Structure formats: structure tokens, C-alpha cells
């Protein structure tokens, strides 16, 4: 293949795949020759060929620009040309009405005024003042008693698990509740651990008591005590991901495993992505005394991953009582959305079984169904499929990301998919 044909194919591929957007200006012939390490004649011939085939066009006295021919749209990329997603009941996104952006903006502006602190890197363990505030916060909210020296801050639970894996010398077996914990399981596997599921005899037991599975089931108190006693008797380490513990359940809020165990063999983890915004990536981890000592000896190996400005802002946000107010608002907002949408589905699908999860955030919809679940995605509806067998479908719906003003249309869309099955009545 000649050099100009090779360059032609390269630029054409970048245009088709959307790496170069429609309307973008291509480098000048002189500059492209330098970028691609070819002669200007080669570039000129490639540009001529691309223009002849309609992939680019020339503007006099300006240069070459990408045309719309062959450029994949955002909806087409990664979806095989399927229709774009209209209603997202699957992701962990947030509803913009759940958060006071103006209030958070004020705290971020105040953090940016703290110029002296922003001239240095963040502490590897996280800002000391924020760790002190978090120590008081988790003691009051979840009876997790730990000094600020045992708390590590990071950008998301995943980054903190990486730190934890590096501190555990013996890479034994780690057990997860089910296979939905993909990222955590993959990370432990990458560090050399053997990953298992629902294995109480594993060396490390990872649990999320307030959101045990896709259904949002909550671990009963009896099971919590059994797990704590078993881990203590057999010297097993528990990782307690206290995800969604601040939300209302159909049962009374249960104590943390860390509190029940006295913190001796429990690593406690929390995050603010659900309470605030998914994009505010601040999570924290409370190490056992032994692991905390090992971390201090090796602290030089670690860097802080959470933004310093966000840490400063969150610290003041919590101190001013804003987080408590946000928790109350978020709890009411999201649990109310789930009840409202469940009622809409019940009115439209009297023969379907519709439940609200124990944590009051998810809707479990079970209905007769004899098609492929992929029809939901093709119809622009993202749902989490729990099972589809014996002509029955069960899906989990998280109403959080879907604006309430779209509920009526979203409910009709779900019914429209299910009504393709003649056994479903509405």
C-alpha cells in the first residue's frame, strides 16, 4: 500500500469512528506532514482522495474540514446503531432536583479562596481536618468509633480497595455476595486473590449490608450478628461497604457491622456519591488498627486521588450541617419517586407483580414475557434484568436518574414493551 493510501485509511477510520468530529478542521498540509512523518505530497494526495470520497471538504483560504459523511453519531457509537436511551432505570445516576447546586457551588468557591492550602499537594491519607470531621460523623451516624488516623480518603471505593489490597500480605480467598460486584471482584483478582461468592469460609468477606444485591435487600440483624461472630471465631476479615445506609428501609435501620464487632476485624467503607452527586468522588475507609499501622509505615507509597478542593469544601459542608439536611432531602426525594412510579405501573399492569425494595429505592417488576430482554434496550429503556425464564421476566428499576416529569411517558414505554406479549393485560 502506498503511503498516501495508508494515510487516507487512517484519517478515514478516525472520521468514521468519530475520533475526528464532523466540522473539525484538519491540520494544514505542512503540519500534517510533520505529524504523520510523511511528505507534503503524500498528505496532499490523501486529502484529495478523502475530499473526492466526501469525507472532507475544502474551504478556500481556510483549509480542510470533516464532513458529516461516515461520522457515527453519539447514539450509534457503542450501541450498534440501536436507538438512543430515553429512560435510564439502570445506572446509578442522579436526578438534578435532588441536589442544591448553588449551595455546593458556594462551598467550592470558598475552598478556592483558601489559596495557601491549594499551593501544595493533598495529604496521601486525605486532608486531616476532613478526616477529623468524618471520624465524628460516622461515630454519630453509625456508631463507628475510630480515630482520624485510621481513616483514609480516596476518589471512590475502587481506589481505596486498591490501597487495602496492597496492605494485605497473604492473598487468600475473598467472597462477594453475588456476581454483580464486578469491579471489586476484578480488582481483588488482579492483586492475586481468589474470588468466590457467598463463601462464609473465605479469608475476606465483602458485604454491603444496606444494599446486598441488585434488589436492594437489607441484611437482617440476626444475620449481621452471625457474620460478626463467625468472623471473630475464625479470624476472618470483613469489608463493610455501607452503601446506602442513610436511606429509609421498610424495617428499622440496622447497626453497622463495625459497631457490632467493635471494629477489631472490620474495614468500614463509605461514600458520598449517592448522597451528593456521582461526580463528587470522595469516599473513605476505616482501617483496623493493625492495617492502619502498616499503612502509616508505607504511606510514602501512596498518593491522594480525591481533589483537594472538594475535600476542603466537603469538610465545611459537613461542619455547617448541610450534609444532614441533604440526607433528609435525598431520602424523601428518592423514596417518594420509587413509590410514585410503582403506583403508575400498578395502574397500568394489574396482572404484574410490583414490589418496592427493602431500602425503598428500587422497584422489582415481574411480568409474563416470552421475548428477549434486549427489546427494552432497543426501545430506549435501560433496565437491570434479574431473570428471564419460564416466560416470566423480572427487572429491577432504579427511578433515581429519570426525571419525574418523564414518569408518565416512561411507564407507557415499559407497558408498550410488555404488551407485545399477549398474556400481559393493561
Helix content: 40-55%
Terminal residue distance: 62 Å
Report the major sheet.
7 strands, mixed
List unreliable stretches of 5+ residues: 73-83, 422-426
Instruction: Specify the overall morphology.
Output: globular
Provide mean pLDDT, rounded: 87
Order of strands side by side in the largest beta sheet?
4-10-9-8-7-5-6
Using only CA atoms, what is the Rg? 26 Å
Helix-strand string: HHHEEEHHHEHEHEEHEHEEHHHEEHEEEH
Task: Let me know the number of strands.
Answer: 15
Derived from helix and strand composition plus strand pairing, the structural class reads alpha/beta
Count of runs of 4 or more consecutive helical residues: 15
- Percent range for β-strand residues: 15-25%
Describe the secondary structure blueprint for this structure:
Elements lengths: L2 H14 L12 H8 L3 H13 L3 E4 L3 E4 L20 E2 L12 H13 L1 H4 L9 H15 L8 E4 L2 H11 L5 E4 L5 H9 L3 E4 L6 E4 L13 H14 L2 E5 L15 H5 L4 E6 L11 E4 L2 H9 L10 H12 L2 H27 L4 E4 L5 E7 L5 H5 L2 E2 L1 E6 L2 E7 L8 H12 L8
Parallel strand pairs: 3-13, 5-6, 5-7, 7-8, 8-9
Antiparallel strand pairs: 1-2, 4-10, 9-10, 11-12, 12-15, 14-15
Amino acid at each position: 500500500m502506498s503511503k498516501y493510501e495508508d494515510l487516507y485509511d487512517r484519517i478515514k477510520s478516525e472520521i468514521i469512528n468519530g475520533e475526528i468530529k464532523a466540522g473539525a478542521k484538519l491540520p494544514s498540509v505542512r503540519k500534517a506532514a510533520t505529524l504523520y512523518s510523511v511528505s507534503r505530497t503524500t498528505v496532499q494526495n490523501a486529502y484529495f482522495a478523502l475530499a473526492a470520497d466526501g469525507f472532507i471538504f475544502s474551504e478556500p483560504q481556510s483549509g480542510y474540514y470533516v464532513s458529516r459523511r461516515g461520522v457515527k453519531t453519539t447514539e450509534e457509537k457503542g450501541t450498534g446503531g440501536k436507538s438512543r436511551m430515553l429512560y435510564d432505570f439502570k445506572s446509578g445516576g442522579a436526578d438534578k432536583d435532588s441536589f442544591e447546586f448553588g449551595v455546593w457551588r458556594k462551598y467550592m468557591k470558598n475552598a478556592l479562596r483558601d489559596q495557601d492550602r491549594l499551593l501544595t499537594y493533598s495529604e496521601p491519607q486525605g486532608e486531616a481536618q476532613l478526616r477529623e470531621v468524618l471520624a465524628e460523623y460516622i461515630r454519630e451516624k453509625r456508631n463507628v468509633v475510630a480515630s482520624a488516623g485510621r481513616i483514609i480518603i480516596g476518589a471512590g471505593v475502587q481506589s481505596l480497595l486498591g490501597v487495602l489490597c496492597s496492605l494485605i500480605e497473604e492473598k487468600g480467598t475473598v467472597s462477594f455476595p453475588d456476581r454483580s460486584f464486578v469491579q471489586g471482584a476484578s480488582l481483588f483478582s488482579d492483586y492475586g486473590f481468589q474470588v468466590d461468592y457467598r463463601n462464609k469460609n473465605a479469608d475476606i468477606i465483602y458485604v454491603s449490608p444496606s444494599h446486598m444485591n441488585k434488589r436492594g435487600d437489607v441484611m437482617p440483624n440476626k444475620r449481621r450478628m452471625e457474620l460478626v461472630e463467625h468472623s471473630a471465631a475464625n479470624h476472618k476479615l470483613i469489608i463493610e461497604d455501607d452503601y446506602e445506609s442513610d436511606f429509609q428501609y421498610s424495617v428499622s435501620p440496622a447497626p453497622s457491622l463495625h459497631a457490632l464487632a467493635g471494629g477489631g476485624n472490620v474495614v468500614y467503607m463509605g461514600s458520598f456519591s449517592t448522597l451528593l452527586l456521582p461526580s463528587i468522588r470522595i469516599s473513605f475507609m476505616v482501617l483496623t488498627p493493625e492495617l492502619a499501622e502498616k499503612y502509616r509505615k508505607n504511606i510514602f507509597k501512596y498518593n491522594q486521588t480525591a481533589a483537594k478542593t472538594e475535600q476542603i469544601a466537603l469538610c465545611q459542608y459537613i461542619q455547617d450541617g448541610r450534609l444532614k439536611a441533604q440526607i433528609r432531602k435525598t431520602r424523601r426525594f428518592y423514596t417518594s419517586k420509587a413509590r410514585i412510579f410503582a403506583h403508575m405501573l400498578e395502574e397500568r399492569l394489574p396482572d404484574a407483580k410490583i414490589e418496592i425494595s427493602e431500602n425503598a429505592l428500587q422497584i422489582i417488576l415481574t411480568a409474563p414475557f416470552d421475548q428477549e430482554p434486549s427489546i427494552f434496550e432497543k426501545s430506549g429503556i435501560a433496565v437491570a434484568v434479574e431473570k428471564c425464564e419460564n416466560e416470566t421476566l423480572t427487572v429491577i428499576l432504579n427511578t433515581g436518574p429519570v426525571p419525574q416529569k418523564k414518569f408518565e411517558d416512561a411507564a407507557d414505554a415499559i407497558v408498550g414493551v410488555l404488551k407485545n406479549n399477549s398474556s400481559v393485560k393493561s
